[in-house]
Amino acid sequence: MTKLALGILGSGKGSNCRAILEQIRDGKLPAEARLVLSDVFDAGILDIAREFNVPNAYLPPGNFRTRLEPAVEAELVRLLQQAGVELVVLAGFMRVLKEPMLAAFPRRIINIHPSLLPKFPGIEAWKQALAAGEKITGCSVHYVDAGIDSGEVIGQRKVPVLGDDTPESLHARIQIAERELYPEVIAQFAAA
Ligand code: GRF
Known about the structure:
The chain starts with a strand and ends with a helix. The protein contains 6 helices and 7 strands; from the N terminus they run βαβαβαβαβαββα. The protein has helices spanning about 15-25, 45-50, 70-80, 100-105, 125-130, 165-190; strands at about 5-10, 30-40, 55-60, 85-90, 110-115, 135-145, 155-160.
């Protein structure tokens, strides 16, 4: 079976990336990680890529805070295309992608978000859910479009909010669900 070529982008510790790479290693996910890229020099996700022998690089983001410098985004497209990436997987990537990436990978960029979208887009979604008194929250995998966490939802996993939850305990429980959901959704792409 041919393996789906993945490019994984992240800015943080990389627990979702680890879950994906473990499933690939264990033969549970018919995919191949071609490239891991980060806009943060010392991000844990780059250490994880090295641990799994996946080609990886730090991409200096330029002067903007919430997006990539246009020339950098063009370079990102080039790197991903050169690596033959078929599906771009955002795993804690903290910058908004713009037209160059969206045009180069139509319906081929996905993201994971820690809420049941369309509820609670944006940062610290688990805190938003707790503050709103939700009894159930969760995580969503969605297509990336020009908005923030606004693209079509592909898959979701529910997580109960417990009476004594703190933001930290709820976030930890959501992240466990994320690490199950993301490889499952990627497997659907691989099977398509
Ligand atoms: C995840 O919790 C995800 O919901 C959000 O960013 C976080 C990344 O965590 N988009 P990690 O770097 O995969 O550990």
